[in-house]
Amino acid sequence: MFPGMEELGIEKARVKLRAIVDRARFKDIPTTITSYGEPVAVVVSLEFYERAAALGGQGSATVVRPHIRDTSEEHHGSGS
Q1: In what order do the strands lie in the sheet with 38-43?
Q2: Residue 19: which domain range?
Q3: What does each of the 80 residues of the chain score in pLDDT, given as a tens digit?
Q4: Domain count, the chain
């Protein structure tokens, strides 16, 4: 984890969203969002994301958490 990085459940994150975004944007401190105790997302500044995307070529997931897989079809269906 990054220094100062916070981990919050989805419900608490919803209530604190403005503060989470401000921490990412102005202090470059990411926040991990959890669901049922499992990490599911990270809020980072746009600058951090752009740097990570540039380094990874395919997006920040390649750099930040290489074991993340694309689940968009699992959750949204492929339409076929």
Answers
A1: 6-9, 31-35, 38-43
A2: 6-65
A3: 677 789 999 999 999 999 999 999 999 999 999 999 999 999 999 999 998 888 876 544 544 544 444 444 444 444 44
A4: 1
**CA dist., res. 24 & res. 5, Å (int):** 10
Buried b (16+ CB within 10 A) or exposed e, 5-19: ebebeeeebeeeeee
Q: Which two tokens stand for residue 9?
A: 């459940």
The model's pTM is 0.66
Which CATH number fits the domain that encloses residue 18?
A: 3.40.1620.10
Instruction: Specify the DSSP class assigned to residue 74.
Output: H
